[in-house]
Amino acid sequence: MVPVSLQAPLTxxxxxxxxxxxxxxxxxxxxxxxxxxxxxxxxxxQNFDVSVTVTDAxxxxxxxxxxxxxxxxxxxxxxxGNGKK
Length: 85
Fold this sequence. Notes:
By secondary structure, the protein is mainly β. The chain is built from no helices and five strands.
């Protein structure tokens, strides 16, 4: 990506494919819940393309989008206490 100077206030929008749940799609750092329905067995995984689009308030608005791939895998989590108290 090429650095771009953006003028505040910024308009931010988050999206995901497949869809994920964002607590606030316009927040700088939203809390995201990824739906893993159908991917519950050890070794299953799901990929999500998560994008953020930012538009500035300059006289000629600049819009930039960045997308990252998030891979979530289901792993076996053993009981750290081996069931002992």
